[in-house]
Amino acid sequence: MSPVYDSNNIFAKILRGEAPCTRVYEDEVALAFMDIMPRAEGHLLVIPKAPARNILDLAPAALARFMPSVQKVAIAAKAAMAADGLSIMQFNESAGGQVVFHLHFHILPRWTGVELRPPGGPIEKSGKLAANAAKIAAALKES
Ligand code: 5GP
To answer: Within a domain: residue 1?
Structure first.
C-alpha cells in the first residue's frame, strides 16, 4: 500500500498558518518560503497548496498548474541572488532523501566553484533569511 498524506507535517502547518515561515511568494496554487537550514545562499522552497506527499501523488493537472510557479520563483531567485546558475532538487520518500512529506521543490542559487553546504543545518539567522526573502520578493514584483 502507498504511504498516505499526513496533514500534520510541518509544511501543511505552514500552509495553514499554524507554523511560521519566511514567506517569499504566494499565488492560488503555490507558496514559496526560505529554507530554514539553507544549503546555499538564498535557498528557498516552493510547495503546492494541494495536499500531496511528493511528486508521486499529486494529480497531473494540479502538477501542471503548479510548475509555472516553481519556474517563476526560480527565475526571480537567480536574478535576485546574482547567481551563475540554479540547482532545483526534489526528493521522494525516505529512500529518495525526503524528510518533510509535503511535496516541495528546493531552489538553490549556485555560483561557479561554490559547493552546496551539507543538509541538516545549522538553522540560519532569521535576519539573514528575511534579507534574502526580501531580495527575491522584490525580483518577483518586477517579473
Ligand atoms: P527534504 O524533505 O527535501 O529532504 O528537505 C526538507 C527541507 O525542509 C530541508 O531543506 C529543511 O532544511 C527544510 N525544513 C525543515 N523544517 C523546516 C521548517 O520548519 N521551516 C522551513 N522553512 N524549512 C524547513
So the answer is: no
Residue nearest to atom 18 of ligand 1 (CA): 36
What is the reported pTM?
0.98
124 within domain boundaries? yes
pLDDT digits (tens, 9 = 90+) for 11-49: 999 999 999 999 999 999 999 999 999 999 999 999 999
* Residue bearing the CA closest to ligand 1, atom 13: 35
Q: Which atom of ligand 1 is nearest the CA belonging to 22? A: 22
Number of domain units in the chain: 1
CATH no. for residue 24?
Answer: 3.30.428.10
**Residue written as grid cell 517579473:** 143
Q: Which domain holds residue 129?
A: 10-142
- Among 114, 32, 39, 35, which Cα is nearest to 73's? 32
Which residues are the active-site residues?
Answer: 104
DSSP string, 19-68: S---EEEE-SSEEEEE-SS-SSTT-EEEEESS--SSTTSS-HHHHHHHHH
**pLDDT at residue 1, as a whole number:** 60
Helices vs strands, H then E, count in the chain: 3, 5
